[in-house]
């Protein structure tokens, strides 16, 4: 027997400054768009209707921002997280232009940080991943850090480099889509009357609705993004239950947040995020949001709102941490992002 | 915590003559079409092959008529049936033109009837819903009535208005697609030799095949139509089992009816329908049809046939009611529609 | 009650030389492509990226070769295998040109062999099936033989004709897509560095990954190809468990084989195949391959490799038969095919 299969990279296979071109470019289109609507209760009008998107200055309805993220992220899995013990965090995520039907996406990652853990068996790798389209233009980028196993515990530790990352992007860091214009935004078609001015910093919104998760759904979603990490698919590998891809929880929670945040149309920044507890089939995902910040933009009719999106499996609303400062066991996700809203 | 989420309308929120523009327009395309074929055993050739559709005078294969119905219907849920206790009936449903890939659909409903129930806690609301495309042309319309909770039992009852609805559309009420022509219809490609003249009023057809329903499938279907009623998704809301969207049963039964009614290609009228008993995952849907009426049309080569489509979960064929006049417990659906067939 | 439903053909309904035009042509497109990626962990770059396909001389990314096979095969089910007791084998399968979005496929089969079994109750039927596109051009063909029930055991046996079939296609029998050129093949984007020259006849590759199968997935896949054989859908018909369509196992195993055979891009020949044991929901499919043969081609940069693809439900690698010469109980599939690889 030969070993032509990908064993994945181990901690000592990463060097600072190394750029990894990820494999398997992907053309997206009408099929991915429909599947996104079948897998998540997605109702944001800009991603549902070409006509609505055109009325907002875009050429047509783009692929959901999170779907673009999943495609870019999925390509990195064989190179970054195949031997990962834990997905530790995200930062400085920026959507740089919308993805349209017919676009072909690819990803590459630069290693921007390395730190061996004191136990000598694992280390933390920071990468900045960029997704580009067929014209070579960046469509999004984000930093992610993971804990990775060492192949050989005795391999020497690299010099420690911990990148300085912004706690949150400032509104000036965000890139708004060219041509976007919410001046004649149709609130009736969008589904809710609440505009940027109606949201207050500190406000908490219970999104009320819930979805009980099924195995077939999360596997279809995860495969669609060509994320092939074993833990999501192979019950002989994880007899205690297939672990649901964290991105499935993100998309589910974001779609549920339509109810109360129907006008938080576009995601343009990802400040941070934690997959607080694992999610399994049978869990019922619910979500609540907190308004963290608000900012004006120079794009006509468009305001930015910084939101915290918390997904739970117990329906608890309003706080995610216990008295010990740790995540409550019912919390699945704690995400911090910037969205665009009509003024 | 703030309440920006949609609480749904209560009985006293409806006024006679009120027109409600439903939110979230939706562009449909190649993805919705493929998903429809993945979710249902749909084989009617006109909806499967662009070439077959062209040979019948249409520009290309339209979206399945029931998919068009589901999209139009789905948009009404947040405004009409979020607080509904029961979906009581349909009438005067007419498909006015086919929906093609790239079309963007929206819906609006006019309140055409109101009647408070004697218990004072609920009332019946009749609405006529119209789906329109991006050119503002109506693609379908139907009347539906639901029983809705009152917010406040002490709120005064509105004047009772019960609309006069046709028991069944006459063939003159039907709109046949422009250009349609079954003169050179290919029965071999369509899958069955039986033409309009081969069906007799009173004839009963057992469609034989069955599909055992899974949770992931009905949820994907229901989300695809952006119908987000809680009862279909949230097992903590309905621990006794997620209720399957009635439209899923309609589409499943119609697709199964291919076997014996392969040439009942287009649905153009919905005379009435009852969701006789709830459907749950694990049920095996089978179907039988009865020919209720036949009529000639002025469209070349096209006859109309009025069909009763009964879906069951026990495989019983031929009658749907017990001796007490009530639906048998194994009956899921009793639908009355007009379809177009080659002469 | 009338009998307009399709009872399927019985053994005595087939005559040597008979050509059966199968019903329900199908237009494929962006939706089928996305669904294929959602249902299988498919990552071969030529089928994932229009840009990659163009760099290989094709106009765009074709529909997966196995999806084309499933569509062509699905149409034959109502005429060939509705009353089949067993699917006995495949031979001389050739992909003749890629299928692109917008193509409409149909199928026809010629009866090329008949042999009544000694028990008098069943017989074997050999058919050569051809799939053609909207221009009437053949896109693929294959021979398949099935054991079919007789309607009437006393019906006379036809003259026995057993077609002479090649054990395996020679490389000269294969049709390579017009324009294909792997001269500037991008191994980094494709995901693995192993080229044609790196594979040795006799080499065995363990594809490592596994997928635990769910009911909703295999039913969606099987319906997508309009294969409506009862055994796959109706739990009241098969209370012991819905039988998974053999083609679902083929596609799953082929997609898993990416890990180690990422550059075996196109399938151009099917030499044979056996569905060794039935597959049910809950089984975890894994796969291994063996290199059976290699051949040069006259297409620039392209080599052919003959592969044996074995799917298992027990993860056993390296041999498929027991000491008794029979398939081991954990083996699901034993497939023999030709694929194209960059030199």
From TrEMBL, chains A, B, C:
Q: Which Pfam families match?
A: MC_hydratase
**Classification via InterPro entries:** HotDog_dom_sf (IPR029069), MC_hydratase (IPR048274), MCH/BMMD (IPR052342), Thiol_ester_hydratase_Rv0216 (IPR016790)
* Alphabetized GO MF terms: lyase activity
CDD domains the record matches: FkbR2 (cd03451)
Q: What is this protein called?
A: Uncharacterized protein
């Amino acid at each position: 027997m030969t070993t032509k299969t990908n064993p994945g990279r181990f901690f000592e296979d990463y060097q600072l400054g190394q750029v990894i071109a990820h494999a398997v470019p992907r053309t997206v289109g009408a099929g991915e768009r429909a599947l996104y609507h079948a897998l998540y209760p997605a109702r944001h009008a800009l991603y549902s209707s070409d006509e609505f998107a055109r009325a907002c200055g875009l050429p047509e309805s783009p692929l959901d921002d999170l779907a673009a993220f999943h495609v870019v992220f999925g390509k990195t899995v064989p190179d970054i997280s195949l031997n990962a013990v834990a997905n530790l965090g995200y930062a400085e995520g920026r959507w740089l232009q919308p993805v349209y039907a017919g676009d072909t996406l690819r990803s590459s990652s630069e290693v921007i940080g390395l730190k061996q853990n004191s136990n000598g068996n694992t280390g933390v790798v920071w990468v900045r991943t960029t997704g580009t389209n067929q014209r070579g233009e960046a469509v999004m980028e984000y930093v992610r850090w993971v804990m990775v196993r060492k192949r050989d515990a005795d391999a020497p530790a690299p010099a420690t480099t911990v990148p300085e990352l912004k706690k949150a992007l400032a509104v000036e860091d965000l890139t708004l889509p060219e041509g976007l214009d919410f001046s004649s935004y149709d609130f009736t078609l969008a589904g809710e009357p609440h505009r940027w001015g109606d949201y207050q910093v500190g406000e908490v919104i219970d999104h009320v609705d819930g979805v009980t998760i099924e195995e077939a759904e999360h596997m279809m979603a995860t495969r669609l993004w060509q994320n092939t990490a074993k833990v999501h698919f192979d019950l002989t590998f994880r007899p205690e239950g297939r672990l649901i891809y964290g991105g499935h929880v993100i998309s589910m929670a974001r779609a549920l947040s339509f109810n109360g945040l129907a006008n938080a149309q576009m995601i343009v920044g990802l400040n941070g995020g934690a997959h607080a507890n694992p999610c399994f089939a049978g869990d019922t995902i619910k979500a609540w949001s907190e308004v963290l910040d608000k900012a004006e933009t120079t794009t006509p009719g468009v305001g930015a709102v910084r939101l915290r999106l918390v997904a739970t499996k117990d329906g608890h609303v309003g706080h995610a941490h216990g008295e010990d400062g740790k995540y409550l066991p019912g919390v699945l996700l704690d995400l911090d992002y910037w969205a665009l809203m009509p003024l």
